[in-house]
Automatic annotation (TrEMBL):
The chain crosses the membrane at residues 48-67, 79-97, 103-124, 136-158, 164-186, 216-234, 254-274, 310-334, 346-366, 372-391. InterPro entries: Efflux_drug-R_Bcr/CmlA, MFS, MFS_dom, MFS_trans_sf. Pfam families: MFS_1 (PF07690). Belongs to the major facilitator superfamily. Bcr/CmlA family. It is found in: Cell membrane. Residues 12-397 form the Major facilitator superfamily (MFS) profile domain. Its main location: membrane. It comes from the Bacteria. The keyword Cell membrane applies. This is Multidrug effflux MFS transporter.
Length: 401
């Protein structure tokens, strides 16, 4: 890392982690409230699930907006504007009184939250070489992985004592804290390029330059499709665990925290493994692991042997694979870019969330009152990611990363 950030390394990494986690935290914290929100709005759970899908779509599209802005104006100004949008949208979520407005305001909330995700990835590229970047991504994943442990439990706690609107009051408080920390303690890592054009033709050209890079394209698809299984789980877990298996809101929060801890375990082991193996080697093994677990889930569903205990264990193992795949494929996808780090980070995030929105939407569309839709979408994502990795990965020059 450059000298200007050495003395504040811990604070900077913490803020980058919080910026990366604000989106996931906004997703996870209200999951236990799906049934309560549906009852309050006199609608169905699958309608409330669409507010999760709209959030994914907002993150996917929003990142394409912030990427060029981060390359043009530097990292901090667009980031702070995005955080202000997040704060405003969260206030609107608190005030909403019907599911249609909630779906729309969640989309706006996502547009604000994704600024932190894009900026954090771009700033990592500003400071680190690819192999070290993979270790930093693992460190940030620790912060991100904590959010699924804390958020649903916190959401369930609030539901047991207060109205569901207070979940969004808490998110508002978190957004304000992150804004203040970013404004005062996060240094600018890239001054921007005054000659960077924001004309549509130039922006599209820059995105195409990134997307047509073979290293970016393959690792982006491998990581994004593998990660989409996580979003399928997020979309379906509330129904499967609470309604199908009969867990209470508190029990659901604890179960969610348990399976999410798999990502903490994986990302920290990954940091140690990167001292001996490359990101390519680690992610391939993780792909095989995740696909094997996915096949076991399918077998259990088809044979009608999927008990809650078995499901919990298999999802833990599934997310364990995700904890190895995500940081390594992200670092590899972004490794060819420096001057276009903002655009590359935006495109990576857009593809990740776009595919995540598709899979979460599929879980909602295929909803049939059983765990089948969630399990099948998760399994399809893992196996497809593995196939792409092994059929396309040989053509990439990984340079030992």
């Amino acid at each position: 890392m450059q000298q200007k950030t050495t003395s504040n390394r811990t604070i900077i990494l913490l803020i980058l982690g919080l910026l990366s986690a604000v989106g996931p935290f906004s997703i996870d914290m209200y999951l236990p409230a799906f049934q309560t929100i549906a009852k309050d709005f006199n609608t169905s759970v699958d309608q409330v699930q669409l507010s999760l899908t709209s959030f994914f779509i907002g993150i996917a599209l929003g990142q394409l907006i912030y990427g060029p802005l981060l390359d043009k104006y530097g990292r901090k100004k667009p980031l702070l504007i995005g955080l202000l949008i997040y704060i405003l949208a969260t206030i609107l979520c608190i005030l909403t009184r019907n599911v249609e407005h909630l779906i729309a305001f969640r989309f706006l909330q996502a547009l604000g939250s994704c600024a932190g995700m894009v900026a954090a990835r771009a700033m990592i590229q500003d400071y680190y070489e690819p192999r070290e970047a993979a270790r930093v991504f693992s460190l940030l994943m620790l912060v991100i992985a904590i959010s699924p442990i804390l958020a649903p439990s916190a959401g369930a706690f609030l539901l047991n004592h207060l109205d569901w609107h207070y979940i969004f009051v808490s998110l508002l408080f978190i957004g304000v804290i992150i804004f203040v920390a970013t404004y005062f303690y996060l240094p600018e890592s890239y001054p921007g390029r005054k000659d960077f054009s924001l004309r549509p033709k130039a922006i599209i050209g820059n995105f195409w330059e990134v997307f047509s890079n073979k290293t970016f394209l393959i690792y982006c698809l491998v990581g994004s499709i593998a990660s989409s299984g996580l979003y399928a789980y997020l979309a379906g877990s509330s129904f499967v665990m609470q309604q199908h298996f009969g867990l209470s809101q508190t029990q659901y929060g604890l179960a969610f925290a348990f399976v999410a801890s798999a990502m903490i375990v994986a990302t920290q082991i990954n940091r140690a493994l990167l001292k001996r193996w490359t990101s390519t080697q680690i992610s391939k093994i993780a792909n095989i692991w995740q696909s094997s677990v996915a096949l076991l889930m399918v077998i259990c569903v088809v044979s009608d042997t999927l008990s809650f205990t078995v499901l919990l264990g298999l999802i833990f193992c599934y997310l364990l694979g995700h904890g190895f795949i995500f940081p390594n494929t992200s670092a590899m996808a972004l490794s060819p870019f420096k001057s276009l780090a903002g655009s590359a980070s935006a495109l990576l995030g857009c593809v990740q969330m776009g595919i995540g929105a598709l899979t979460s939407g599929m879980v909602s569309i295929l909803h049939n009152g059983t765990p089948y839709p969630m399990v099948m979408v998760m399994s399809t994502a893992a196996i497809l990611s593995l196939l792409i990795h092994f059929t396309s990965g040989r053509s990439i020059d990984t340079k030992g990363y």
